[in-house]
Every structure is written in structure tokens, then in C-alpha cells.
Amino acid sequence: MAGTREDFLDTARAAGALLREPAVAAAWPEPSALPKLSVGGLAGHLAYQVLALPPLLSSPLPAEETVSLLGHYERVEWIGADLDDDVNVRIRHGGEDAAADGAAALADRFDAAVGDLAGRLPGVADRPVRLSLWGPWSLRLDDLLVTRMMELAVHSDDLAVSVGLPGPALPPGAVERVVGLLSRLAVRRHGPTAVLRALSRAERAPGTIAAF
Question: Residue 76 to residues 23, 88, 132, 185: CA-CA distances in angstroms?
Fold first, then answer.
């Protein structure tokens, strides 16, 4: 789906511009808006959403089952996990490790990965791909890109808030895909009535319809 890939790349470019903001580099070792994660660690986790992808495009087809987009979120360990559960500790350590060489080095790696993906994504079939950290399943490439788009959008906002900047503007197509995904996950978590009321009836809205 060409639109998905273009929206992903545009979202990644917006995240890349945020990574190069002087305010991000200046606050690198400071606490971020997310518990137990530095600004640098959050930037590293944000960058991982792109850095992990180039090797997948030339990897062998995975043997693991290919699941749907929502099926992926039924399987991930981090939804509902406590802050100090192993999965969240691994995520934080991965972000901090990615940030170890500093803001400029991370931004350079990120921009190089975006450039690589921009050149290769148009010619790649919508084939199954798998990130080994997930578990024993795979996703179609375009579904994977939607998951990464959501991560980029959410964590770009986290990073911007952490350093006192406005959240980066996202392309309209990315907004539709990310909000659509989060809405479906919110329905799964809270039920359709709660989401319907939250979006249409302030007087009957529940306290939250957060997707996670």
C-alpha cells in the first residue's frame, strides 16, 4: 500500500527533525516524561522504530505465523505490563543503549536509515516480516509500518513534551492511520459504547478510553 509507506516515511522524517532539535541534545541525560527513562533513552527508543527496519527488508521470509494488525496487539507482552516487568526493562535498556553515543550520532543513524528505507520500500512486496523481540509471529510489511507509525507518533509527542517543545506535525494520512489503530485498540479494551460516548457525548463520557 503506497500510501502507508509514504505516510510512514513522512512520519519518520518529522521524528528525525525532532531528534535534531537543540533542546533534545541539551536535555539528553535528564529525566523524560516517561518514568525511569532519560530524554536520551526515549530518543533511542523513538529511533529504534526506524533503525530496526532496514535489515527486515532483505531478511528471509519468516517461518512464524503471520497475524493481523490487531492480532499483533493481542500477543505483545508490554500491554498491561508493570513498569519493572522484564519487557519494559528491556525496552528502557534498549533505548538507553541506542542513545549511548549522543544525540548527533543517533540522529545521523536515524537519517541514514530513513534514506535507506525511502530508496527500498517502493520496490518491496507486502511480504511477512518479523522483529525477533516480539515473539513467535510475523506481520505483513504494511501492517508493521502502521505499528511503527503509531510508535513514532506517540513517542515523538513524549519526546517533545519532555523538552518543552510542541509535538511535531504529522501528515494527514498518518494521523488517520494512527488514530484509527488507537481507536480500534480502545474499543478492544473499553468496549464500543465507552468509545462512542467519549467521542460524541461529553455528559456520558467515561474517565478514559486510553488504548493502552
Answer: 33, 11, 12, 13
pLDDT given for residue 132 in this prediction: 86
Please give the backbone phi and psi of residue 54, each rounded to the nearest 5 degrees, phi first.
-50, -40
Under CATH, to which class is 2-167 assigned?
mainly alpha
Q: What is the pLDDT of residues 30-69, one digit of tens each?
A: 999 999 999 999 999 999 999 999 999 989 999 999 999 9
What angle (nearest 5°) sits at the alpha carbon of residue 8, between those of residues 6 and 12? Answer: 115
Sketch the domain layout of the chain as residue ranges. Answer: 2-167
For 41-163, list the strands marked E by DSSP: 128-129, 139-140
d(CA 140, CA 31): 35
151 within 8 A of 95, measured Cβ to Cβ:
no
* Residue type, position 64, single letter: E
Cell numbers for 143, please give them: 501492517
Separation CA 41–CA 44 (nearest Å): 5
Q: What is the pLDDT of residue 170?
A: 93
Say how far apart CA 89 and CA 187 lie, in whole Å. Answer: 28
pTM (whole model) above 0.90: yes
The closest alpha carbon to 163, from 11, 49, 45, 43, belongs to 43
Q: What are all long-range contacts of 193-201, with beta carbons under 8 Å and residues at least 24 apart?
A: none
Find out whether 63 and 137 touch, Cβ atoms under 8 Å. no
- Express each pLDDT in 1-41 by its tens digit: 469 999 999 999 999 999 999 999 999 999 999 999 999 99
